[in-house]
Amino acid sequence: MDIIFEQVEHIYHANSPFAQRALYDVDLSIASGTYVAIIGHTGSGKSTLLQHLNGLLQPTNGTVMIGEHTITKAIKPKQLKPLRRKVGIVFQFPEHQLFEETVEKDVCFGPLNFGVPEEEAKKKAKEALSLVGLPEEVLNQSPFDLSGGQMRRVAIAGILAMEPDVIVLDEPTAGLDPRGRKEMMEMFARLHREKKLTTILVTHSMEDAAKYADHLIVMHKGTVWKTGTPQQIFHDPDALLQLGLDVPETVLLKRKLEEKIGREIPSPCLTIDQ
Ligand code: ADP
């Protein structure tokens, strides 16, 4: 499913004294099957933008097209239900949303809610659990008896069980230790490769953005400041630093080296393995 934003604006509490414009003039396109990272300072509009991807928010102006779905301010929220299945959003700390007595019930919740028959939902739950690297034995356990990292995987399995085409990840490694972070990011990279999932990552980690995404979208003060490959975006680290963003260590090292030798080093890749 290709994703296209045309002149999207979002104003919270529009037409009230508390009106707050969070997005304006947002034009972007994300081709089906790509891995995109959205970066930007706190308050730049990332979270507002991602909630437009499955109709949790509707634009107050402009159009969002997700595959065959067109979202404008005029569309009725209930028309957007089918989209919720196709675009799964993994919010920060998704494990906080677990609530069922068993892992199986939690992972089946989404498919059952979309009318999938029980036996089929259970099959999908099993598959989803294996995709996130958890053994079948956990199906009958309480999610609350698992470790924090495992609980997060269960929550992600609940989204994968709906077999989305697009997965949106809002800081999916928040609160994990470096090893857990790397394992989680590698898991999403594998899902992207094997399931051809369009993957949209919101992150503060420039290292992760550079390492995993094919394409970056830099948000600044409610609009798209720049889009491009990691090489294109990190080619001008000063501009990013001026926006208050970090740049990967390797980019700074490369620049130091260039200053020393007095010429530019071509950057075949920015892959960083920590
Ligand atoms: P980011 O995810 O980049 O931190 P947000 O999308 O959360 O940015 O916020 C963009 C702007 O919208 C900020 O000015 C923020 O204060 C405002 N905002 C976010 N959510 C709400 C809300 N529910 N009501 C009013 N203003 C909001």
TrEMBL record:
It is found in: Cell membrane. It is an enzyme of class 7 (translocase). InterPro entries: AAA+_ATPase, ABC_transporter-like_ATP-bd, ABC_transporter-like_CS, ABC_transpr_CbiO/EcfA_su, ECF_ABC_transporter_ATP-bd, EcfA2, P-loop_NTPase. One of its GO terms (cellular component) is ATP-binding cassette (ABC) transporter complex. It holds the Pfam family ABC_tran. The keyword Ion transport does not apply. Belongs to the ABC transporter superfamily. Energy-coupling factor EcfA family. ATP-binding (A) component of a common energy-coupling factor (ECF) ABC-transporter complex. NCBIfam families: ECF_ATPase_2, PRK13634.1. This is Energy-coupling factor transporter ATP-binding protein EcfA2. It comes from Anoxybacteroides tepidamans.
